[in-house]
From TrEMBL:
The species this protein was found in: Brachybacterium paraconglomeratum
Designated name of the protein: ATP/GTP-binding protein
Gene3D superfamilies for the chain: P-loop containing nucleotide triphosphate hydrolases
Region called Disordered, residue ranges: 1-23
Recorded superkingdom: Bacteria
Coiled-coil residue windows: none
Biased composition (Basic residues): 1-19
Length: 414
């Protein structure tokens, strides 16, 4: 009996397998009527609209598919009703429903290629938080429970979009501060109201949305407004209220140095709306959402994790759990795991099991800061060698650079 017990004690415990998914969550916050439901329908409809995709000169390397067929069909119904009947979808009042999308490669990798890939799947989870829950009190205990559950579900998000309603901003022309101050006050009050329910025992959170992007919805109504003018307007008219919102968010997280509230900005228009017609293919910024959700957290986490003043557990969380797979595997996915890596990365073995532990902080930084001609060179090599995942991720970074040149996106330089 003793020998048997001794044998059991010597049996090693197998560690749980580490996920190889690049899974990014995005949370969308805005008042009711700010265009959140239309935006989601436009985002998915554009990904499925074959006629619209054929106009693009870029090679189509992937498909984006809703994991829940019923959800996907509902979004497509909204999209095609906008296109064919000029019918705007109704908002999700008092209901928070996450949507999960999977990016699948168009060319199926061989068994050897799949083994070498540091990522098995790329997924995006979209959390649409109802504006009504910021604007008014809940009706009872059941709705309060659903509100808290919805907010807890989106805590894994790295990126949050703060929707500024372009229609309301236009209506307040000359007095924009009235609308902007009220908006940020409403969002801050809603977060403060949730604070005690979200923080168990008052303990601040490590996992929490840390990149809060100012997003101007219905940007087609303000054609003279580029992203820099938009951000300047917000700071001119409501910098104090935006700062108070940031303080409310800071009070909920560990390591508030790793936090960007209103530092990034994006213009969004789900379609061009005219009387009797909705031009769904005349979008602004919608095609930037997936690249933003996939790449911005990686870039920002690497930058933040290099800072010595960030608490160790926050730096570790950002470095190891960013996008589920970790920053090292993300860097390899960008460069492609089966061909010689550029620069210092080329000096080490490209066998995946060997490379990931050997990636230094500088090497990961090289991947995060890849830009300009060097970025295009890595992207072109990935296309040439049919490294689809690397081509997709570097293509996402190219999309972000293009959006900045076009005045649609502005990333924080901090």
């Amino acid at each position: 009996m003793a020998a048997r017990e001794k044998k059991i004690r010597r049996t090693p415990r197998r560690p749980a397998p580490r996920s190889r998914k690049l899974e990014q969550h995005i949370a969308v916050f805005g008042e009711s009527g700010s265009g959140k439901t239309v935006l989601l329908s436009s985002f998915y409809g554009a990904a499925q609209d074959q006629a619209g995709r054929e106009d693009s000169q870029a090679p189509q390397l992937y498909d984006l598919v809703a994991d829940d067929t019923t959800q996907g069909d509902r979004l497509l119904k909204n999209y095609f009703r906008m296109e064919n009947s000029a019918e705007v979808p109704a908002g999700n009042r008092f209901r928070a429903e996450p949507y999960r999308f999977t990016l699948s490669l168009r060319s199926t990798p061989s068994a050897a290629e799949r083994k070498a890939m540091p990522v098995d799947a790329v997924q995006l989870v979209w959390h649409d938080y109802p504006g009504e829950w910021f604007e008014r009190s809940v009706s009872g205990p059941e709705e309060e429970r659903r509100r808290i559950e919805a907010f807890r579900a989106l805590l894994v998000s790295d990126v949050a979009l703060l929707m500024v309603d372009g229609q309301k901003l236009k209506d307040a022309a000359g007095e924009e501060e009235r609308y902007l101050k009220a908006l940020f006050h409403t969002l801050r009050t809603g977060l403060v109201r949730l604070r005690d329910e979200i923080l168990v025992g008052g303990k601040e959170l490590v996992r929490f949305p840390r990149i809060w992007v100012l997003a101007l919805s219905k940007a087609d109504l303000l054609p003279e407004m580029d992203v820099d003018r938009f951000k300047a307007l917000v700071l001119e008219k409501a910098a104090d209220e935006l700062g108070q919102l940031r303080e409310a968010i800071e009070s909920m997280v560990v390591g508030d140095e790793a936090l960007a509230v209103g530092e990034d900005a994006l213009l969004l228009s789900s379609a061009r709306f005219t009387p009797g017609r909705i031009a769904v293919r005349e979008r602004i910024g919608v095609d930037v959402i997936l690249p933003l959700a996939a790449m911005l957290p990686f870039e920002r986490h690497v930058t933040w994790a290099r800072r010595q003043e960030i608490p160790a557990k926050v730096a570790r969380e950002l470095a190891e759990n960013a996008g589920t797979i970790g920053t090292g595997a993300m860097a390899l996915a960008m460069f492609g795991a089966r061909h010689r890596l550029p620069g210092r990365l080329g000096l080490i073995s490209t066998a995946l099991a060997t490379v990931v532990p050997l990636l230094s902080k500088d090497m990961v930084q090289d991947a995060a800061s890849l830009a300009g001609e060097k970025l295009r060179g890595v992207h072109d090599r990935a296309l040439e060698k049919k490294q689809s995942l690397a081509a997709i991720l570097t293509g996402f970074k190219i999309d972000l650079e293009r959006a900045e040149r076009e005045g649609v996106l502005r990333r924080s330089r901090r």
